[in-house]
Amino acid sequence: MKPPFLRPGDPIAVVAPSGVVERGRLAAGIAYLRSHGHPVLTGPHVGARDGYFAGRDAVRAGDLNAAIADRRARAIFFARGGYGLTRILDRIDLRGLVRRPRLLLGFSDATALFMALQRRSPGLVQYGPLVSEMGDRREFDEESLWAALYGRREAFTIRFGSSDVLRPGTGRGRVLGGCLSLLVSLLGTRHDPDYRGAILFWEEIGEEPYRIDRMLTQLRNAGKLEHLQGMVVGSLTGCAAPAGKPSLHVRRILTDLAGRTRYPIVWNLRAGHTPGKLTLPLGIEATLSSRRRSLAYRLPV
Predict the structure, then answer these.
(1) What count of Cα atoms within 13 Å lies in the side-chain half-sphere of residue 292?
(2) What distances in angstroms separate CA 64 from CA 73, 120, 258, one per listed residue?
(3) What are the CA-CA distances from residue 49 to residues 17, 56, 254 (Å)?
(4) One of 18, 38, 45, 108 is an active-site residue; which one?
């Protein structure tokens, strides 16, 4: 599954398969894409609302499937995260995406679809900003976004500092992952891919350290962390314990985990739920090296 990168003027489909989208923010994001010369094909129900969802399950799945079937769309971008994709995974035309791959961009709840695709046919997806964030340039790294979407080489080597290395070493494998809570939600389902030989990326928002610990422990007990080639931890926004509450720091939790592994672990990558987020390619092979302090991808051809 090797989708073509974007070219100037390529149409982009925008859908909302998860949470309710704020219309003003969505309009600003669509205007941003159009200002870069890309026609936008907006899902007919992208502004719908059903409780905390952007419309009923059938409506959200229908818009996504229509985008998958639309031969004009060279890419599919997600309008918002939130919650809802796991509810409609069984309704999505995953075979259609495998037969005719498109560049996919999103993060957070998009993890569910990205991982379900990796289970069926490994290939490139982009873990980056949502369309409803694109009207505010502070929310994402523009250079990283467009380099990744257009396949520029600089997007495929990501640097980190020596202080971000929790366990040194070198590992090579396909980069999988996303939002930690979504990874855990897929355990035991038919949408959960094989982690063996992979470099696992994860990030999270609004989870206290003990919950991070519990989710990582669940992945470990499920055998998901045993045969990795490396681990890259992204942004952990709002993941500190409340003041005065007994707690471990997340770094300590990761240090304990590192003591049970033989692969490199780095953390503090600016990806996920954070302002200025990098766009991180997933689904393709990379080398994680603590000596070179880089995650270097092998470009798909």
Answers:
(1) 10
(2) 12, 18, 39
(3) 11, 8, 39
(4) 108
Contacts of 233 (CB under 8 A, 6+ apart): 201, 202, 203, 254, 265, 266, 267, 268, 269
Report the Cα–Cα distance between both ends of the chain, in Å, rounded.
Answer: 11
- Residue of 132, 133, 191, 203 with catalytic role: 203
pTM: 0.96
Q: Going by C-beta distance under 8 Å and a sequence separation of 6 or more, which residues neighbour residue 218?
A: 184, 187
Contacts of 238 (CB under 8 A, 6+ apart): 205, 206, 207
Residue 273 catalytic? yes
- Among residues 273, 285, 289, 290, the one annotated as catalytic is 273
What distance in Å separates the CA atoms of residue 196 and residue 61, rounded to the nearest whole number? Answer: 30
Radius of gyration for the chain, computed over Cα atoms and rounded to the nearest angstrom: 18
Verify whether residue 203 is a known catalytic residue: yes
Structure tokens given for 142: 């523009």
Evaluate whether 209 touches 239 at the Cβ level (below 8 Å).
Answer: yes
Q: What angle do CA 81, 253, 271 make, to 5 degrees?
A: 30
- Per DSSP, helices labelled H in the chain are 23-35, 57-69, 85-88, 94-99, 111-120, 142-150, 180-185, 209-221, 250-258
Residue pair 80/130 in contact (Cβ under 8 Å)? The answer is: yes
pLDDT at 287: 98
Per DSSP, the residues of 231-284 read EEEEEEET-SPPTTS----HHHHHHHHHTT-SS-EE---S-SSSTTBPPEEESS
Q: Which two tokens stand for residue 201?
A: 């990326």
pLDDT of residue 208: 97
- Model confidence at 122, pLDDT cuts 50, 70, 90, reads confident
pLDDT, the chain, mean: 95
Q: pLDDT (tens digit, 9 = 90+) per residue, 138-158?
A: 999 999 999 999 999 888 999
Please give the biggest Cα pair distance in the chain. Answer: 56
Checking if the pLDDT of 301 tops 70, the result is no
